[in-house]
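Quick check before the chapter quiz. The format below is the same one you will see on the exam, so make sure you can read both the input and the output lines.
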Amino acid sequence: MTKISDITKSLEEWAPLSYAESFDNVGLLVGDKQTEVTGVLVTLDTLETTLEEAIAKNCNLIVSFHPIIFSGMKKLNGSNYVERVVIKAIQHNIAIYAIHTALDNCFTGVNAKICDVLGIKNKQILIPQKHNIKKLLTYIPVENANRLRKALFAEGAGNIGNYDSCSFNVEGYGTYRGNEHSNPTIGKKGELQTEKEIIIGIIFEKHLEKNILKALFDNHPYEEVAYEITTLENTHQQIGMGMIGEFENEMSEIQFLTHVKKQMKTDCIRHSKLMGKPIKKVAVLGGSGSFGLEHAKNKGADAYISADFKYHEFYKAENKTLITDIGHYESEQFTKNLLVDYLTKKFTNFAVILSEKNTNPIYYI
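Here is the expected output.
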């Protein structure tokens, strides 16, 4: 029996909710996580038509990219489409889960999929996310250090880029004296104890903190474990918004725009003034990405593919980067395929269905 919690746990191992931006609303928005799953419908947006599709296909969990509940709800009486969707979901016992910017910031998420569709290679994060790395310092007797390191590594600590099992270790001497209520593992209460110890320094991603602390307490011999956790200013090179990479071969600007229009299945591309130079290095950012333009320019992108640029923002191309606005829906449309592929590989005992509904609210003539 697969519960909704099994699905959400798997999704969050891939795209931890801690990756999401502070303004976002991600996770299980409607429903009971202990409910048994009959089927999963994957969609970009959760609308009333999406719920009708879920009902017809016996899916009691909708995995949506965008959250249907974004800002606070003060009432629930069906006065707008958001309230109607939530009411209908509750009436039919359908849960709604949103992943949004957690998947945006995932190295194998939204922007990686855009790169794959376009054939962009050598991918790197465009805007690495800050404050995602934490550092643990702890002090442990020499004979217990190796066991603790292995336990911390097993929980994902010590991963740096292409390396794992990374730590820094310094030998020294620790002192302590327990009072009458203490129960020291080494030494006696009321007596000053000097113990040869190792300081272990190790980094980890912030969403792992709970498991890291459990491993620390489970594998440390002392009654009172001395440790410090600090948040680092270092950016994580595999967590963040957007991606930048290269085409295998250069294209002219017209060839590039034609290629993007075809591969991204869009009827319209808005772009800045053509610069008369070849396109090879390209940055992408799904959704509303005008904020990423300066990052794309600073990293030498010949073109920047995103959506929702305002009129005056096109001037900011400044003959350095070709702004390529392909539309919000169009830039994220393959995300639901990405989610279906992931869930289908993880779960085989029920249907994972790609929604047939086009939820794009924008039309072109």
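If your answer matched, good. The chain is about 30% helix and 30% strand.
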